[in-house]
Design brief:
With about 270 residues, this protein is an alpha+beta fold. Helix content is about 45%, strand content about 20%. The protein contains 10 helices and 7 strands. The protein has a 7-stranded antiparallel beta sheet with strand order 1-2-3-4-7-6-5, with helices on both faces. The chain is elongated. The N and C termini lie far apart (about 80 Å).
Length: about 270
């Protein structure tokens, strides 16, 4: 079985090897740690697929088209099992050429694309509104940091910033001056969250930018957990007077907490 253990491993896991090859491969697994680790990896991947991918109904004529293209024994029973059970064992009644073809096609799709990575990300299997909103809020902040300046209206005067939003968003945000608390206002901009333009106030903490998005609760977005850290950025959210506020910055979380408290308590 020289140079063949990896080739036979998938057939072994699917219960498709004859007795002689099964015994030979089991002896190899007992002495070959790398092969044993590969077995564990493949079995774990199968488990994820079975748990997270719902059964797929084959479209009418799909199996017949494949049979016509490559020949072989009828494909429908095997393909149904492959899709529904995630590469679990196929019955001995299905021809070995079909098992090899189905496994090869499915594994090639998964291992040569980002499919495996997506399968291991729960949010890709049914996006959580909290995660989607968090991603959009953070993306808006990062885009602003990449721009020549993170604001559309540069001003520390709240009486200048607040009226600037008139006509640009559905409702001008509450704007407060927090310079006495160590968070000076530097301006504002408009971001788009869930296809809805929302006002964003921009403050600073020393050299750090704090983006504060004010999202009306009736808009189709959901508040995220109170605190979250992603890739070195802290996100803090709270609800006040029918508005969901999202603060995001690379300042330390205690500083962001202090900012949120100062904003909530401001008259």
């Amino acid at each position: 079985m020289e140079n063949q253990p990896n080739l036979l491993l998938h057939a072994y896991i699917d219960g498709e090897l004859d007795s002689a090859h099964t015994l030979e491969l089991e002896r190899e697994l007992a002495s070959n740690r790398a092969l044993a680790a590969e077995r564990e990896r493949v079995e774990a991947l199968q488990k994820v697929i079975r748990e997270r991918l719902p059964p797929i109904t084959l479209p009418p004529g799909f199996a017949r088209r494949i049979e016509a293209a490559v020949g072989g024994t009828p494909a429908r029973p095997l393909l149904r099992r492959v899709f529904a059970r995630g590469f679990s064992q196929a019955s001995a009644s299905s021809g070995p050429s079909w098992r090899a073809l189905a496994a090869s096609v499915m594994l090639a799709v998964m291992l040569t694309s980002s499919s495996t990575w997506l399968l291991l990300r729960p949010e890709m299997l049914g996006p959580n509104p909290e995660d989607v909103t968090t991603d959009m809020v953070l993306a808006s902040h990062l885009r602003a940091l990449k721009a020549p300046q993170p604001i559309d209206v540069p001003s520390s005067d709240r009486h200048t910033v607040k009226p600037w939003f008139n006509g640009r968003v559905s409702e001008s945000p509450r704007v407060v001056d927090l310079s006495s608390e160590g968070f000076p206002l530097v301006g504002g901009r408009v971001d788009v969250i869930g296809r809805v333009p929302v006002p964003t106030l921009v403050y600073r903490r020393r050299q750090h930018v704090i983006s504060l998005l004010a999202i009306p609760e009736e808009q189709p977005v959901a508040p995220a957990p109170a605190r979250r850290s992603i890739a070195g950025y802290n996100i803090l959210t709270w609800t006040q007077d029918g508005i969901a506020y999202w603060a995001v910055s690379d300042v330390a979380m205690p500083d962001l907490d202090a900012f949120a408290k100062a904003f909530r308590d401001a008259g």
